[in-house]
Amino acid sequence: MTAFLIDNMAPIMFGALVVFLLLGYPVAFSLAANGLVFGLIGIELGLFGPNFLQAMPERVLGVMSNETLLAVPFFTFMGLILERSGMAEDLLDTIGQLFGRIRGGLGYAVVFVGALLAATTGVVAASVISMGLISLPIMLRYGYDRRVASGVIAASGTLAQIIPPSLVLIIMADQLGRSVGDMYEGAFLPGLMLAGLYAGYIFVVSTFFPTAAPGLPPDAIGFREENGRRGMTSLAILTLASIAFGWLVMLESSTRGADRVVLTMFFAVLFAFAVAVVNVVTTRAFGFRFLSKIAQQATVVMVPPLFLIFLVLGTIFIGLATPTEGGAMGAVGAVALAAAKRRLTLDLVRQAVRATAKLSAFAIFILIGARVFSLTFYGVNGHVWVEHLLTSLPGGEVGFLIFVNLLVFVLAFFLDYFELAFIIIPLLAPVADKLGIDLIWFGVILAVNMQTSFMHPPFGFALFFLRSVAPKFPYRDRVTGLETAPITTGQIYWGAVPFVIIQLIGVAMVILFPQLVMHYKGSASTVDPKTIEIQIAPPETPPALDLR
């Protein structure tokens, strides 16, 4: 029996952890308890000495002194301030008006705002709850199918997981031992790709099932000109001019990939803001307005969060600021924007600080528990067991990626992304590195896959967040005065299924097209090292010294 325990300590330890988690014990305490109990068993069986556990305080101290993880509370605070200052409501209202009578317009608006909130909040709960409270009543009011409405809101909220400055990408980079800036840059295009796939689904639904995603009625469209027109031409010209300005500024730049996209958009936003300011000045001073009402409203609402997004991400991408410094700058910027809108109150700051402290403590305690577990797991040669198990899979790199993604997809039914990142990633990363897989690419693949943990019925957290704000009983709509039926839990679950499939398609696309991520490395050198010749001039003979 003793020999069996010694030979199989690693799988027994991992199995015990799974049992604890399935029983419902808190993850942080399950990890730490497993590490300590099996550490004592390992000492008793002679697998290592008592002094082995003396490394534990140093590991815990390493967690507490990790400067990279400081970005987590900074970005969380930034997102909560922006979300609770009413930015989400302004964005949803304005962008919903932009799409107007287009079928599925509100669905497109939710996806677009979800992407913007993801790039500002980085917190799934904040995005889902905000859009659930604001857009769900509007979508029900104008006849959207309940499954389509709930699915697109929950899925768009999960974009906060993959679009920088995502909190899970910070954790992922820390666990993989890679730069957060590289992880952000690598995840930028896959995040936009997922948003595009969500919008594509809305297009398909609105095309083949027009009653499931109708456009807004004429009387629901505001910001019209005096002649009754919407003024969309003015907005289109401003948008094209802004993008052209940003592109011209970056024309001679040597930056490539996501760096170039972010910086181009940053200068485009600056141009749009300058035009909007000039429009306000000329309107007040001379009564002359060259921007339509909808163009002015869209600029005023969208420029501040976009400016903050591209300022923070741009400085991180070009290496001017670390993620921690970028997060601190973003937190200060969020407070400044809330103050500029006259929505900054002591109660708002108190709520944001309390929520930030809770989330940060949650992440740190799980990480400490994971450090305790991994110390004992490595002590019983668990890393060797995992490596032998995964490297013996048929198919090499492809077989490894397929198996790992299936494993993460199944575990996502029971664990959230923090738990997956702290438990699974440290076990998989060494094997991926040994197989020659780029760890940034590997991390982005898993981040897109782990996004499904929010959408899995019946334990998806995004579904729980939406259920908490979706109407459970019939209610009377405040605009139409008509009685509206509630949304059932089954409708929320069925609405999530197509988006889980879309997320799996996203995983496949990132695997099939690595350049979506690998652009973070920039342009490869075209110089052949074998053709390089280094010529060293012979040393000159020093003049003779005259000693006379």
Automatic annotation (TrEMBL):
This is TRAP transporter large permease subunit. Keywords: Cell inner membrane, Cell membrane, Membrane, Transmembrane, Transmembrane helix, Transport. Part of the tripartite ATP-independent periplasmic (TRAP) transport system. The chain crosses the membrane at residues 12-29, 35-53, 60-82, 108-136, 148-172, 192-211, 232-250, 262-286, 298-320, 326-344, 356-380, 400-427, 439-466, 492-513. It comes from Rhodoplanes tepidamans (Rhodoplanes cryptolactis). It is found in: Cell inner membrane. InterPro entries: DctM, TRAP_DctM. It is a multi-pass membrane protein. It comes from the Bacteria. Residues 14-516 form the TRAP C4-dicarboxylate transport system permease DctM subunit domain.
